[in-house]
From TrEMBL:
Keywords: Oxidoreductase, Thiamine biosynthesis. Its EC number is 1.4.3.19. Gene3D superfamilies: D-Amino Acid Oxidase, subunit A, domain 2 (3.30.9.10), FAD/NAD(P)-binding domain (3.50.50.60). InterPro entries: FAD-dep_OxRdtase, FAD/NAD-bd_sf, Gly_oxidase_ThiO. Pathway: Cofactor biosynthesis; thiamine diphosphate biosynthesis. Residues 8-361 form the FAD dependent oxidoreductase domain. The keyword Cytoplasm does not apply. It holds the Pfam family DAO. The gene is thiO. The lineage of its organism: Bacteria, Bacillati, Actinomycetota, Actinomycetes, Kitasatosporales. It catalyses: glycine + O2 + H2O = glyoxylate + H2O2 + NH4(+). Coiled coil: none annotated. This is glycine oxidase.
Amino acid sequence: MARGAQADVLVIGGGVIGLAVAWRAAQRGLRKVVVVDPSPGGGAAHVAAGMLAPVTELQYGEEPLLRLGMASNERYASFVAELTEASGGEDTGYRRCGTLAVALDSDDREELRELHAFHQRLGLDSTWLTGREARRLEPMLAPGVRGGLHVADDHQVDGRRLLKALIFACERANVVIHRAEAVELLVEDRRAVGARLSTLETVTADQIVLAAGPYSHRLPGLPEGVLPAIRPVKGQILRLRIPEAYRPFLSRNVRAVVRGQHLYLVPRENGELVIGATTEEQGYDTTVTAGGVYELLRDAHELVPGITELPLVETSAGLRPGSPDNAPLLGPTELPGLVAATGHYRNGVLLTPVTADLVAEYLATGEVPDLARPFTPARFSPARPTTKAHA
Ligand code: GLY
């Protein structure tokens, strides 16, 4: 078996989280950084709509996650500006457009009003609108819309462009990207020391970052109990095209809860309109189903009837990596040498800048930054309970 060179950092998983961690680690002066992934630039971000929505995606009881999301959102503009420069000019499709969450009936309106009150208690910037005011902002909304919340700071980025820019930035920072699967974690004397690859090579490293999304806990060789199970949560999603003559079709992200499902429409500056997403817990299946597409189109049509005029150009499905408390796992695991950057569930694209900064900080200094403390994997260890990620 060929034995590769010793790396400072080996990142297992070349999705948006793994690539951003690798790029930041290289910037922090870690000399040799290696990423392994059979399809770098894939993963959930390749499918995702790329909504950056810490406020409109907020769930009750998730205030620490809100703080992390807000911190990441605040870093986004400078993160993508730096990334564009570092990648040689790649545009990430970052758009500071704001988000409008709307209610389709009086029950939805009550729920949205409660969410607004919750936002106000937390001091978040969100503005209540009547149905008429919401339609004035977005004239394509259905006449029946009963009210809405305008959140000026929930924006969007294009996950595919972000991934492409990260690959270029990694390459320019001398990160080595191996197109191979990590088939076994190598552990010696109770320390993670590297990985064996599908190419039969091995890569050894001082520190190993596990950023393999819903596959993280399944890596052969990972000792039991080091990571909790990361469940795959399927999301089916549609891409439509807004012909020039119809623009601007929507000027900002629009979302609603329709029949209990989160529905969102994300209009890009290049004319793409992304409609998502189903939430299904069915294992590792990524089949696009007629039922999934039907439900998304039916619900989106209720919200914005004009979508039926638009060309449907792509249907796809991805897997969100859901940790047991739906918050990410960031930082050292109980296995020395092994660091987690996984379990971002619905928030991987949003949490990319802050995850990369916090994990790179830990890799460079050995210190867990304060912002990461509620999210270390130790919270799932019965032996060493720490602050819970959720209040
Ligand atoms: N963040 C949106 C989703 O996971 O569907």
